[in-house]
Amino acid sequence: MAKRPLDPPGPVTDSLTLATKSATGDKAAYGALMRHWQQPLWRIAKRYTGDAGESEDIVQEVFVAFWRTLTKPESGDSSIPRDVGAFLRRATLNACRDWSRRRAVRAFFFAAIPFDPARDQATPQLDPNGQTNDLETLELLIAQLPTGLKGPLILCALEGLGQKEAAVVLGLSQKAVEARVARAKQMLRKNWPIAPTM
After folding, report:
1. Lower CB count within 10 Å: N or C terminus of the chain?
2. C-alpha radius of gyration, the chain, whole number
3. Alpha-carbon distance 133 to 50, whole Å?
């Protein structure tokens, strides 16, 4: 899989320029920034949580928080990250971790069945033609991985970032990213022996 740049150039202008304009209250620039990053961030959240609807909410929260940060009167230029792509991806992963913690707390207090029974199924569901949807099955299994392994795997194996770029997003060393991706892949192979090569 070809590696994507950490902050891909947009059709109109780059993300840093849009963020700089947004910091002055330019809503059109922020709208363009959101349109540019909405799908990449949603994919990360969906692969982390396994839930499309919750992922939309998570991405919306990330964009609202970023807008507030950029437009705070006291923040000035210091509120604009140099690498907007890394910042937004990190914010999305952090929001996913918060979402996971909230779910775990709710499940503990309501103490009934596991909060998403579909995720407890050992065998992938078959579609009407008797075939598995590899991507859906993979995302379901990724959603069950330990928190520290999801982010590196999603960024490197599914979003196409190199380990160096993922290390920047996650605030980890490149070696740590490499180790976590390897552990995540090992766990996936164990739970899904017929998994396609990643």
Report:
1. N
2. 18
3. 14
- Tokens standing for 139? 């995302």
* Angle at CA of residue 174, ends 39 and 144, nearest 5°: 55
Q: What does each C-alpha distance from 162 to 1, 47, 138 come to in angstroms?
A: 10, 18, 20
Distances (CA, A) of 45 to 9, 18, 132, 153: 21, 23, 22, 13
Structure tokens at 30: 């922020």
Q: Beta-carbon neighbour count of residue 77 at 10 Å?
A: 7
The answer to whether the pTM exceeds 0.85 is: no
Task: Count CA atoms within 13 Å of residue 190 on its CB side.
Answer: 8
Distances in whole angstroms, Cα of residue 152 to Cα of each of 74, 77, 141, 144: 34, 29, 15, 14
State pLDDT tens for residues 99-115: 887 766 555 444 433 44
Percent of the chain with pLDDT over 90: 41
Tell me how far apart the alpha carbons of residues 76 and 87 are, in angstroms, rounded to a whole number.
Answer: 17
